[in-house]
Design a protein that fits this description.
Helix content: 40-55%
Shape: globular
Oligomer: single chain
Number of strands: 3
């Protein structure tokens, strides 16, 4: 569903946001692409246990929604890299808020986030 199709369905900004980031793996893919573009294999390796089929589906959906772009390099073998678009990068404040909430939500799970550098504001 594209952003244009979404606004035809609803005017609620929360629903629009959720429709763009509601895929089970979408937020984790965005997290991985915050610092720099990555190839499919790098994404697949860093977001376990996602299957290659599901990762492909999520990447296509995110590209359709304008969150990421897919760049094909004319090399042999072909190389494809995924990166965030300006719209995808604009989700950084949401990612920071989710990180902060997750760190403060419970005292049961005291762990250090090894991704903190990726979602810290610049």
């Amino acid at each position: 569903m594209t952003g244009e199709q979404i606004t035809e369905i609803t005017k609620c900004p929360i629903e629009i946001t959720l429709s763009l980031i509601s895929g089970k793996w979408t937020i984790l893919i965005i997290r991985e692409l915050l610092e720099a573009g990555k190839r499919f294999g790098e994404l697949h390796k860093s977001i376990r246990p996602i299957s290659a089929k599901i990762l492909t589906q999520q990447l296509r959906e995110m590209e359709t929604n304008g969150l990421i772009e897919r760049k094909v390099f004319s090399e042999i073998p072909p190389r494809v890299e995924y990166s965030l678009t300006p719209l995808g990068k604009s989700l950084l404040p949401i990612m920071v808020a989710m990180r902060n909430w997750g760190l403060n939500a419970t005292s049961k799970h005291k762990t250090k986030c090894h991704y903190c550098k990726q979602c810290e504001p610049v």
